[in-house]
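new request in #modeling-help
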Amino acid sequence: DAKTTQPNSMESNEEEPVHLPCNHSTISGTDYIHWYRQLPSQGPEYVIHGLTSNVNNRMASLAIAEDRKSSTLILHRATLRDAAVYYCILRDVGGGATNKLIFGTGTLLAVQP
Amino acid sequence: GAVVSQHPSRVICKSGTSVKIECRSLDFQATTMFWYRQFPKQSLMLMATSNEGSKATYEQGVEKDKFLINHASLTLSTLTVTSAHPEDSSFYICSAGSGNADTQYFGPGTRLTVL
């Protein structure tokens, strides 16, 4: 599975936008970029995913670089409830793929009031 | 989104006993379920992939005889930690997907403490 690199931690202020970066320089053509987040003492929660084009949903936006070697998760207005570990994961959907998710270390986002 | 439940949410047991953890997909049929383990301040580690009606596929380094996985129906997978020891104390999390579904849905986790 291709690896991703994320900063260990980031800080944000409440109601300000947050940009969480992820590098995936060895991404393959059949890798989707997935983002999950994990609040303390809970299971992970799906945030967003994409392949090539930028994506928006009610939780966040995903900006994908043209060469697909990096992406950015954007929280438009951070709230205290957004404090969590955010994981950027590549998921291969090519032939023979197992659909499993391999978690890296993620980015711990702290949100200050 | 889809709901996945786990039972129990926390369990404390004595060393040497076996513990069963259930993972249920409540509103969809899960052809594949995954089991993860997470130690404090660490990331999730995939233990095994469970496919309905067939044997589980274990990740390298995970003992299949110690962590028994059963996926007897499309809505239920169980993980049994056999002869548990204190080093097995961890947060166990399951997830469920449906075929080639783009997302996985995670359970709330089970906190296991082995005394």
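bot summary: Chain A touches chain B through 23 residues (CB under 8 Å).
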